[in-house]
Amino acid sequence: MAWLSRLVRLAVAAGLTAYILWKSHPGEVLAVVANADWRPLLLAVALVVIDRALMAYRWVELLCTINPGERPPMAAIMRIFFVSTFVGTFLPASVGGDAVRAYSLSRWNVRAGDAIASVFMDRMLGVTSILLMALVGLFSARDLIANVTIVTALGVAALASTMTLVLIFSARAESALSRILDRLPGTVRHPGNRLVEAMRRYSTHHGSLLGVLAGSVAVQILRILQAYLLGRSLNIPAPVAAYFAFIPLILLVMLLPVTFNGIGTSQFAFVWFFARAGVESSPAFALSVLFVALGIIGNLPGGLLYAFGWGRVPTDAASPAEPG
User: For residue 68, what pLDDT is reported?
Assistant: First the structure.
């Protein structure tokens, strides 16, 4: 049934994008793009290089719970990271890329619990950083606080972040979760307990967690600036404060695993949010397309690594085989 799920997501992405494009008037969207100033766009691409380097740093830092002698070579780690980000372009939101990264790391004799925990922590600290930026942005767009959907999304993100931190630092929470897992079948209980154990090991790595959170916040700021530069290239008059208010919320929408790479959901979110700043739908739609395209450009190095084998570690160095 996996093919059916992919087909549904593809249909949702295509249908939602087509509908928003129709509402935004295709001719007007093309006119906006045709009159774009490409100099800010080139600067936005340069910022993508920096944010991808920070994202790689985050994950490397989160491998701190794995003994140095058990970690894969750095070349393999970098290959896993960049290839998984590329593959994630064609999978639901960021969930697919995370699964590829955890699986690939586990093939290097890294315990599955440690592999999943490193990716999960990377994702949750990323969500926490988006949440922090969204809360800051709401101070400049306080009317959004009355929106039930936005408040619900922020509440879910806050709850997930809080539960993760409680699990890491609270022995009582670990015991309670372990008792719940003990009532489940072995196929769930054993890997669940190993994952909880791996998560708890982060409780002694405060510096690494703070460093990763700081890096995550920096990534979100870079993404906001990228969107602002794209908006400048399209001659969108919205102030930078609007981008700080809207982009973190849009990123939360794009994380929803309902389409591929946020296509469709991002177009809807950009048009809906920027309408509140007086931006017409056609430039907002063009901005959404450029923003998604910029993310794909940032993922291309992983495609080159995969296609040409650059940075590939000899197969006999991995066990049982080198990850993709």
Answer: 86
Contact 12, 264 (CB under 8 A): yes
Q: HSE-up of 113 (CA within 13 Å, CB side)? A: 16
The whole model's pTM is what?
0.86
In one-letter notation, the amino acid at residue 274 is F
Non-local (6+) Cβ contacts of 251 within 8 A are 130, 220, 223
Average pLDDT over residues 17-29: 90
Contact in structure between 98 and 313 (CB atoms under 8 Å): no
| Residue range 108-118, pLDDT digits in tens | 889 999 999 99
C-alpha to C-alpha distance for 40 and 158, rounded to whole angstroms: 34
Domain ranges of the chain: 17-317
Query: Other CB atoms closer than 10 Å to residue 250's CB: what's the count?
Result: 26
CA distance 209 to 221: 18
Does the pLDDT value for residue 287 go beyond 90?
Answer: yes
Q: What is the pLDDT of residue 89?
A: 76
Q: Is the distance from CB of 292 to CB of 266 less than 8 angstroms? A: yes
Q: What are phi and psi of 313, to 5 degrees?
A: -85, 140
Going by C-alpha positions, the residue among 153, 137, 139, 128 that lies closest to residue 227 is 137
Give the C-alpha distances (Å, rounded to integers) separating 213 from 66, 134, 167, 177.
19, 15, 17, 25
